[in-house]
Design brief:
About 85% of the residues lie in helices and about 0% in strands. It has about 190 residues and is mainly α. Helix 1 runs antiparallel to helix 2 and helix 6 packs antiparallel against helix 7. The radius of gyration is 18 Å and the shape is globular.
Length: about 190
């Protein structure tokens, strides 16, 4: 294979992966509309991207099958996530009320929320049919705390979603695929290292 053909092939492979991330983001956004299915949607999206990178058959059917399997117990994780968000909003209300120590409680709450969100994404990136969400989350919390650089990559993925939404709200949906790709890349890097 000539150098030009090899360069063109690498470009097309990378552009194809990027396009697949955008498509996956739209699928994740649609699957997460019930809100409690957000972890399951990210799990199905991560499995889809993993299959795509492995050059395996992966399409809407496989995504929806993974979504159904992940949602069997994943909806509880989604419900717990929304409960954690409600607690954070209560913390912010305490901070605004001017209670003693409120600023510290607010900072701890925001930090804990970031850790839980990143751990949830890391758990979703490693999910597979039959896996226990409890076990996945326990391992993901440990990896989140032990690998701050990887966790920062995932947080930066969220920054892409926020920037996309700020620019044009509809762009936030495809950008969700970038968050799933970031979580998958961080987990694959950790498994290889």
């Amino acid at each position: 294979m000539s150098g030009h053909a090899r360069t063109k092939s690498v470009f097309l492979d990378r552009f194809g992966a990027f396009a697949e991330c955008l498509l996956t983001g739209v699928w994740i956004a649609l699957a997460a509309l019930p809100l409690v299915t957000l972890p399951a949607a990210f799990a199905a999206g991560s499995r889809h991207l993993n299959r795509h990178l492995a050059h395996e058959t992966s399409g809407w059917r496989e995504f929806t099958a993974d979504l159904r399997a992940a949602a069997r117990r994943g909806w509880l994780v989604g419900l717990a996530g929304w409960a954690a968000l409600a607690l954070l909003l209560a913390d912010i209300a305490f901070v605004r009320a001017g209670l003693p120590g409120g600023a510290f409680v607010g900072a701890v709450g925001v930090t804990a929320l970031f850790v839980l969100v990143v751990a949830g994404l890391r758990a979703a990136a490693t999910w597979g049919p039959g896996a226990s969400w409890r076990a996945l989350l326990a391992g993901a919390v440990r990896r989140t705390l032990r690998d701050p650089a990887g966790s920062l990559v995932i947080v930066c993925g969220f920054a892409v979603v926020v920037a996309s939404a700020w620019f044009a709200l509809p762009l936030a949906a495809p950008a969700l695929g970038m968050v799933a790709a970031a979580a998958l890349a961080v987990e694959r890097r950790g498994a290889a290292g």
